[in-house]
Inverse folding.
């Protein structure tokens, strides 16, 4: 494969995986700054991940789409990763579980296995089902906003952590309902989520507990099916029915892929809009639809900064870089979102009037299955949050999560204004 073969190389001779143009660090103050360095170095450049693991980073939208459309050359299957099998990747490398997940699920296989595993999920996780979740999402959002108001009013300066109060619990609650998890298990599931998505804790035992829970959940839904996604998966015709292990892996992927990403979307959107008041005014006045803000945030400040990994199945020249069979390829969504070759000279400007599309939900066979749900949650939360507190501000600069993969913050303290919104009652927890 040769994508855009005319792309110039660096002055230092051919790019080589072993000679990184940049080292990504979890302590980076700003992943957008790293993205600029990688993008300016070229469309496909060698970079080093924390732990000294070298990968090719794709920084251009068009090149990434080529990669994601060619699973025969750029596989999702870790069996093709030369360094892994050569013993060069330490077994305790913290990013191993994300770079090369073990086991078999739709995220780490190619066709025909991918269609076999994705087909049933796509059949039941439809846009129609997502539209049906709208009243639930509105209701949960309103209750969380009430609770957030109460928490803010209990402080001297009317501040509260939006991430903790709304962005974190909302997607978790919605996924739990989607899967038919009974209310009485929500808090137990929430505890698992807390560990699973906390980079400072070892997720192994929480993951094992979650898998055991999902097996029990399947048995329960088999005995007493409902109208939820799990029951519909179980109901599918024989030709499409998966084994219990495959079903549990599918539910696990929905949880892992769908929760954290949506948390970051909500946090990044609030942060972006409060620092672009002119844009927020266009939304508040009704001149521009809230859904456009969601799209523009996904491009300009995407939740997934750098996505691990695809593996070259054979030698390939990609936008001027010579890849060997077994080389790992990282898709840098954060670099692609402001790619001037796709978005022009104003690629770096956040502009809800000029929504230019994005690839932040991926592309090709593995394109995000949950995009309609993430979009719906984003629109509902922004509309209701700013509808209620149009003058809301971010009270202090948020701390970045120490990760090179997600574009995320550990909290987002906001000040609710005006301050006359004191609820007469503190509502029950959601
Ligand atoms: C803003 C939020 C989200 C973002 C930015 C996002 C991003 C992505 C990306 C980039 C991929 C492609 C991975 C690849 O190329 O291998 C993906 C796949 C996937 N996403 Fe999302 N996602 C989001 C929300 C969700 C939600 C809410 C769900 C479900 C509840 C979900 C479920 C999935 C699944 C199941 C896949 C795997 C598809 C496959 O491998 O065939 N995502 N997502």
């Amino acid at each position: 494969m040769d994508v855009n073969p005319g792309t110039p190389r660096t002055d230092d001779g051919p790019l080589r995986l072993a000679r990184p143009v940049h080292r990504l660090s979890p302590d980076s103050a700003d992943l957008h700054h790293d993205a600029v360095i990688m993008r300016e170095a070229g469309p496909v450049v060698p970079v080093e991940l924390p732990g000294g693991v070298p990968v090719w980073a794709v920084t251009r939208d068009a090149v990434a789409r080529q990669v994601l459309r060619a699973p025969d050359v750029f596989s999702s299957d870790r069996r093709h990763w030369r360094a892994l099998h050569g013993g060069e990747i330490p077994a305790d490398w913290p990013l191993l579980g994300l770079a090369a997940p073990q086991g078999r699920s739709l995220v780490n296989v190619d066709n025909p296995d991918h269609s076999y595993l994705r087909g049933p999920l796509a059949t039941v996780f439809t846009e129609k089902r997502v539209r049906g979740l709208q009243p639930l999402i509105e209701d949960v959002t309103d209750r969380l906003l009430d609770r957030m108001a109460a928490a803010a009013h209990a402080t001297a300066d009317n501040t509260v952590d939006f991430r903790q109060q709304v962005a974190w619990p909302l997607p978790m609650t919605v996924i739990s309902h989607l899967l038919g998890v009974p209310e009485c298990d929500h808090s137990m599931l929430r505890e698992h989520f807390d560990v699973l998505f906390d980079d400072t804790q070892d997720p192994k035992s929480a993951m094992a507990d979650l898998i055991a829970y999902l097996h029990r959940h399947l048995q329960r839904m088999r005995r007493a099916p409902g109208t939820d996604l799990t029951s519909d998966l179980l109901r599918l015709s024989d030709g499409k029915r998966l084994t219990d292990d495959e079903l549990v892996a599918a539910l696990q992927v929905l949880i892992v892929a769908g929760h954290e990403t949506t948390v970051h979307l909500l946090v990044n959107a609030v942060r972006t809009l409060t620092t672009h008041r002119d844009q927020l005014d266009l939304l508040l006045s009704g001149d521009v639809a809230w859904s456009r803000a969601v799209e523009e945030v996904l491009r300009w400040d995407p939740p997934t900064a750098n996505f691990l990994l695809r593996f070259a199945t054979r030698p390939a020249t990609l936008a001027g870089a010579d890849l060997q069979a077994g080389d790992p390829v990282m898709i840098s969504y954060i670099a692609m979102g402001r790619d001037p070759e796709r978005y022009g000279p104003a690629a770096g400007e956040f502009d809800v009037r000029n929504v230019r599309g994005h690839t932040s939900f991926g592309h090709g066979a593995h394109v995000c299955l949950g995009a309609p749900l993430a979009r719906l949650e984003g629109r509902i939360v922004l509309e209701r949050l700013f509808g209620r507190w149009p003058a809301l501000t971010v009270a202090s600069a948020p701390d970045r999560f120490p990760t090179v993969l997600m574009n995320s913050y550990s909290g987002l303290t906001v000040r609710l204004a005006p301050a006359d919104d004191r609820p007469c009652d503190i509502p029950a927890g959601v």
Observations:
- Residues 2-415 form a domain with the Cytochrome p450 fold (CATH 1.10.630.10).
- The mean pLDDT is 91.
- Residues 68, 76, 106-107, 118, 175, 253-254, 257-258, 261-262, 265, 303-304, 307, 360-362, 366, 368-370, 373-374 surround protoporphyrin IX containing FE (CB under 6 Å).
